[in-house]
Amino acid sequence: MSRPAPCPIYTLRGAGAPLNTLHFRCPGGDTPLLFSGSAKGAIHIWNLNSRRAEMVVEGHCGNSVIWVSTLRSGDSLMSQGRDMQVCLWDLKEGRSEAVDSVWTGSVGFCQCSLLETSSSNYLLAFAGSQTEEIKIIEMPSKSPVSTLIPDTKLGMVMCIKLWKSDSGLGPLLFAGYEDGSLLLWDVTQRSELSRVKAHPEPIMCLTFDPRHLRGVSGSCEKKLSSWMLDNQNNIQLQDCVMLVNPGVSQLRIRDDSRLLASAGWDHRVRVFGWKKLQPLAVLQYHTDMVLSLAFSDYQDPRQRLLAAGSKDQRISLWSIYNERADTG
């Protein structure tokens, strides 16, 4: 029998604008935090013990914040705004100082992607000033690594994902484009490895599981497209997952590779078993489009959370499927 629909364990209010992006930082022994970026340019840092914002960072001149992330060191925050800037913030000892920035030149909504390559260096990928351009730089030096432009017109870059293969290849990047194409790039060689037409409409979001070489993407359609990589790094389209209503803003896979969550334009979060893409739950709380999702990085699996941010200016937090049940 199916379970009763769960309710949020709590909600966070006070952002005062739609929530475009969410990111957890829950290191053992330290205060668990949730970072949110809003359409009014504010980054809220939420203390999950007190369930209140302990700091608000205003850093993009009132322009919408579309991506936030932290580095493993824990004291550095990165944010991307519609002011065409990526900012690096120092959070040590309660500070909120912008210590560096990168100009992207992109006016689109494509979120950056980050890949840490050592304790002090990382790659940053972002959409460039040209329509189909993706730039990758090494940080903190800002040294150019690669510029990726397809050899045919695919429209705007919509979403990107940097990752590192265990096969010995250098960093790789998935990119979803306006015409529905999904490409895999070799960053170091600046070469296209594979291309498929994953959707008839623009790819709004994608996520990838490097351990199982499987990914999934969404668009404005009533379906998700799942795909995998073969041993020649060719993208192979697999089954589609049909949705009740059209439109997906974001997709997230939990770190244990057991759950997939989708943020719906229909105000709902849908949860699937990642192994077989079996529908497990529909989370209903929000009164407008769900724009962002994040799974927590708690080391204790029983504490794991799913956060959802909405156009209704609220964040809901859910505790789901943390026991060893079959998630399909």
TrEMBL record:
<dbReference type="InterPro" id="IPR015943">
    <property type="entry name" value="WD40/YVTN_repeat-like_dom_sf"/>
</dbReference>
<keyword id="KW-0677">Repeat</keyword>
<protein>
    <recommendedName>
        <fullName>Guanine nucleotide-binding protein subunit beta-like protein 1</fullName>
    </recommendedName>
</protein>
<dbReference type="InterPro" id="IPR001680">
    <property type="entry name" value="WD40_rpt"/>
</dbReference>
<dbReference type="Pfam" id="PF00400">
    <property type="entry name" value="WD40"/>
</dbReference>
<keyword id="KW-0853">WD repeat</keyword>
<feature type="repeat" description="WD">
    <location>
        <begin position="283"/>
        <end position="320"/>
    </location>
</feature>
<dbReference type="InterPro" id="IPR036322">
    <property type="entry name" value="WD40_repeat_dom_sf"/>
</dbReference>
